[in-house]
Design brief:
heterodimer, A: 613 residues, alpha+beta, Penicillin-binding protein 2a (Domain 2), Beta-lactamase, five-stranded mixed β-sheet, 39% helix, B: 91 residues, mainly alpha, 2 helices, 0% strand, rod-shaped
Amino acid sequence: MIARPHFFFGSWSSANKAAAPGHRRVSSDRKTASGGVKPRAAGAHPNDEILTWRATATRSKVVLMLITAGLGVVWVKAFWLQHVNVEQWQKRAENRFERVRDLSAARGRLLDRNGEVLAVSISEYRVGLVPRLFDPGHPRVSDLAGILGVSPTELRRRAQTAKGFFYMSSGLDLGAADKVRALKLPGVELEQEFRRYYPHGPAFANLVGFTDLKDQGQEGLEFAFNSRLQGKPGVERVVVDRQNRVFDKKTFDPASPGQDLRLSFDAGIQAIAYSAAEQALAQHQAKSVSVVVVDSRTGEVLAMANAPSFDPNQRSRLDPNRVRNRAATDTFEPGSTIKPFTIAAALDAKVVSPGTNFSTDPGRLVIDGRTIRDTKLLGTLTVSEILEKSSNVGTIRVAQKVPSDAFYQKLRASGFGEPSQIRLPAEPAGRLRPWQSWAAVDKAVVSFGHGMSVSLVQLAGAYTVFARDGDRVGLSLSPVSGPVVGQPVFTPETARAVRRMLERAAGPEGTGPKARIVGFRVAGKTGTAHKPEAGGYAKARYLSSFVGLVPADQPRYVIAVAVDEPAAGRHFGGEVAAPVFAQVAGESLRRMQMSPDPTVRVVPALMLVEEGT
Amino acid sequence: MTQFVNWVLAAALLVSALALVNSRYHERRLFALSEQLERQIEKRVTEIENLQVAIASLRTPGRLATVAKDTLGMVPITHAETVYAPKGRQP
C-alpha cells in the first residue's frame, strides 16, 4: 500500500513529459526536488520519447486496472454495507443519531355526576442533577438554588458528594420549571411528573382514596378503578444532530392518557353529608360517623361520607383509622334497623297483617336460656306498633310465625350476607348464618338485627326495597339514567305497608321523631346496638344508626347514618343518628329544590323545576 | 444537439440537487419550529388545567357554604320562606 502513491507519482510525471515537453524542465525539477523518479529522459532523444511512451502505456494499463480494481473494491464494500450486513450497520447509525424519549401519560380524572373534579393529576416538574456535568462553581448556581428554595451551599455540597444522578427537588410548577430551563446550566435536568390533587379535600378523602408515588391507586376509588384511570405512557424516537437538537421524529407511539371516570356521587350532597357527620362526631364524641345517601329510583350512591377524615393533599401522616372508608368496609350489628325486614317477611308470608295484635308482656322473653328485653313495658301492640315502638319481644313473636327458610331468603334477597355490587376495595359480605344452622335463639336475635353483621352501604341498599315497591336495585357508583327495574323481594303491598309503618316510626309516637324535617314526610327506623366484644356484648359501647326514606310519599333518597360509640351521654339511634339524618335529608332536598308540598311545585326565581328532578 | 440536451440535463440535475438541499434545510427548520409550538401548546394546556383545578377547589360546596355563612352572612332558607306559584304561571 505504501508503494502505491510513489508509483502513481512516477507514472504521472512520465506521461506529463510525453505530452508537454515544454514543461519538462519544470516537471523534472519538481520531481528531483521532491525526490521522485530520477529523470530518465534527461538529455532527450526522439527514440527515448517513444520508449517512454511505450513504457508508460503499459503502466497506464496497470494503473487503469488498479483504478478499476479499486472501484471494484469500493463497489464490493458498498454492496456489503447496503445488502449483506444491513441490520448491524443500520443499528449503529441509529444508536448514534436517535434518541428514545418517554412520553408520560396523565392519570384520568375522577368526576362527580355533574362533572365536578374530585381528583385530578397536576403536571409538575422535578429537577435532577448529573454531578459529572454539573459545575458547582458556575455563577448561576445560586439562581438555581433560589428557584429550588435551597441554600447555594447545600446545593453545591449535594452536587459534590453525590456519586451519580439524583433528584434535587420535586413539585416545581410550570413557571419555576421555565426559570430553571432558562438558566441553561449543564447537568441540570427537568423531568415531568404528575401529582394527584383532590379539590374537595377531606369530604371525599376516604371514599376517593389516594395514589402512591408511582401514580398507582392505593385506596378507595383510586384503587378500585385503577386500571381505567391509569394512562399508557408512550415512546417517541427522535433523530438528533450533534448538538442534541431534535430535527426529526421517526416512529411515534403516542401516550394515551387514562380515562376520566364520572361517578354517581353529588359533590353537594357529599359536602352536606360530610359536614353533618363531622358535626355529629364532635357533638357525640363518637369514634366515627358514617353517612350514605342512595337515590332509590336508580340505586346510584350519591354520597358516602365518613368522619373523621383526612386531608388527601397533605399526606405526611396517615392515620389508618381516618383513611378507611368505614361506610363500605366496616360491618356492625345493625340492631333494630333490621326489624322492617322481619315484619315485611311476615307480611309477605301472609302469617300476619299490619293490624295483627301481639302481646309483648312481660317485656322480656327467654329463649334457649337467653333473655331478650324491651327497653320498657309496651303491652299489646299491633304489628305496625311493634315497628313504631321498636319492640324486640314483639318482633321475635312475629318472626316466630315466619318459616326460617323464607325469612332467610328474604334477608338474602335484600342484600344481606353478600357484598354489594359496587366495586369498592375490601368490601365485606357481612355475616348472616344460613337458616339451616339456626337454633331458636339465632332466629330470634336475627329478627331484631343481632347475631349478624352488615355494612352501612349494604343497609342503605337494602332499604331501597321499601323506598321502591318491594324490588331491590343494585347500588351503582356510576351514573345511571332512567328508571331501573330491580329484583323483586317483597310484594308492592308489603313494601307500601312497611313504608307506612316506617313513617309512623319516624313520627311523634315512634322512636325516631328527631328524624322529621319540616315540609316533608319522612319514613325511617332507628337502631341501637350494643357493640360485640370478646365473649358477649359491651355494656356501654353502642352503635347508633338510622336508615330512612324521604320524601315518604314518593321516596327519592335512602339515607343511612351510623354513629360508632357515641360517648357524650346519649346513645339511642333516635337521639344520636336521627338528627344527622334530618340534617342531611333536609339540606339535600333543599339542594335538589324539591317541593316541600307534593301537590305544588316550587318555582325558584329563575328556573322551573320539572317533575322528578 | 445531444450535447445541448446533456447540458440542460446536467443543469437540471444541479438545480434539483440544490433544491433538495434547500428543502431539507427548510424541513428541519420547520420541524424545529413545530416542535417549539407544540411545546408551547402543551404548556398552555397545562396552564389551563391548573387554572381549572384552582377554580374547582375554589368552588367546592364546603368552601362556598363557609363563605356564604361567615363572609356574606347568608342563612339557609327555611320551609316558611318557600314561595309558591300557581301551576302554569311564572312569577
